[in-house]
Amino acid sequence: MRTLTTKGAATRQRIVEGAAETIRERGVMDTTLDDVRARTRTSKSQLFHYFPGGKEELLLAVARFEADRVLADQQPHLGELTSWAAWRAWRDRVVERYREQGRQCPLNVVMSQVGHSTPGAQAVVTELMLRWEAEIAAGVRHMQAAGEIDPGIDPGQAAAALLAGIQGGVLLHLSTGRLTHLEAALDMGIRHLRDSAPRVSPPYGAGA
Amino acid sequence: MRTLTTKGAATRQRIVEGAAETIRERGVMDTTLDDVRARTRTSKSQLFHYFPGGKEELLLAVARFEADRVLADQQPHLGELTSWAAWRAWRDRVVERYREQGRQCPLNVVMSQVGHSTPGAQAVVTELMLRWEAEIAAGVRHMQAAGEIDPGIDPGQAAAALLAGIQGGVLLHLSTGRLTHLEAALDMGIRHLRDSAPRVSPPYGAGA
DNA sequence: GGCAGAATGGACCGGCAAGTCCAGACGACG
DNA sequence: CGTCGTCTGGACTTGCCGGTCCATTCTGCC
């Protein structure tokens, strides 16, 4: 059943991207298959041809599409957190990404509809978060190896906290329209890591 | 405005709570007015009698209801962040609250549907966040006055970062089912404040 | 007790959107 | 050049769900 010709694959892709765009503009709630059909200049039968599971399956595909973009947009910075300058560049990139995106997080939107019910959609987000966190943790470890971060810090925990701050910052950006929370969370998180560094000597009173 | 008898007010309240429960169980998407009607043993006409604006107005009332609970559940700790022990108690209370609640955040669920479209619902969340952040900031200021936090730290920014961490932690709890992110964010945030103290204090979490 | 207005019951409507179906065009491959 | 499976078009069905309406019952008040 998964025999797609190149033409078919292109159509499928067009549907996913068109659906993603429509959802970004109007939200999942107000996005009907007919909207997608109109935008992508396809027919009902094509939608169900490529997504036999109907709307749910399409939404899942959109979620994957958006999830991939999230990490891709942070590269190459996220993959090379090997200096404080790199951390700074990454931090700026994240903020910039969400500034550009405006008050919307397509993935969050999709998830809020499908996420709770279907395990499939939940897996998409969970996997994204895991990869994201792993990359941050790798950066922390790298800086520890370079002596720039206190080796006593648990990289996993630090990455978890940082990721939480980012997620919350984005969430607050959606509600308030301001990026201050995202920036504050990132800055505080990174600063915490920096301050932990054994600068002169162990931070017993003299440090910072 | 409409005049409500005591009986009417009770019915209205019953509808809001019933709707909130239903939404918590099934999500907004799968909650119909008929579901609410059945659970609250009311009739269609009552729903529209008390919420002339229809589903949207009801959802907004539910959002307010849930928003109030969020802060209420953190009291009295949140209002009295006057010692590290109090901060610790608050932190534990927040984690506990979301542990009890399980993998769901009714407010987030409601918001994701209504939040983007209607300014009313957005105002509910924004106001909640503002109050929340203000209380945290007050706690930071109090600790600064007590010499327990570096006076150079901007209370607003610290509160913003902490709040972002909480929100993200909760969000990740929804996806992953784990509370580690929430805990990590809270612990890191508080630890950062504590480490900033101009004088040596007992380690965070060390009791006493 | 009677009347204004609130509270309730439930039948009914209208529209919309997901999903179905079949007829037919296109394209690959021998 | 034929034939088979993929791809496409679009009309049609179906069921649901928000919302309306009116008839009836209750409640508070004088």
Q: Can you put this structure into words, describing what you see?
A:
- The first copy, chain A, has 208 residues and is mainly alpha-helical.
- Chain A contains nine helices and no strands.
- Chain A has helices spanning 6-26, 33-40, 44-50, 55-72, 84-101, 106-115, 119-145, 155-176, 180-196.
- Mean pLDDT of chain A is 90; it is low at 203-208.
- Chains A and B meet through helix 6, helix 7, helix 8 and helix 9 of A and helix 6, helix 7, helix 8 and helix 9 of B.
- Chain B binds a DNA duplex (30 and 30 nucleotides) through residues 2-5, 7-8, 11, 32-34, 42-50, 54-55.
SSE blueprint and pairings:
The structure is a homodimer of 208-residue chains.
Chain A: H1 6-26, H2 33-40, H3 44-50, H4 55-72, H5 84-101, H6 106-115, H7 119-145, H8 155-176, H9 180-196
Chain B binds a DNA duplex (30 and 30 nucleotides) through residues 2-5, 7-8, 11, 32-34, 42-50, 54-55.
Rg calc of chain A? 20 Å
- Helix/strand structural class of chain A: mainly alpha
Average pLDDT of chain A: 90
> Main interface pair?
A-B, 46 and 46 residues
Largest pleated sheet of chain A: none
Key attributes of the depicted protein:
elongated, mainly alpha, 71% helix, homodimer, 208 residues, DNA-binding, disordered C terminus
In brief:
The structure is a homodimer of 208-residue chains. Chain A has 208 residues and is mostly helical.
